[in-house]
Amino acid sequence: MERVKKAALEHGADALIGIGGGKLLDLAKSAGNSLQGNHPHFQP
Question: Which top EC class is named for this enzyme in its record (predicted)?
Answer without folding.
Answer: oxidoreductase
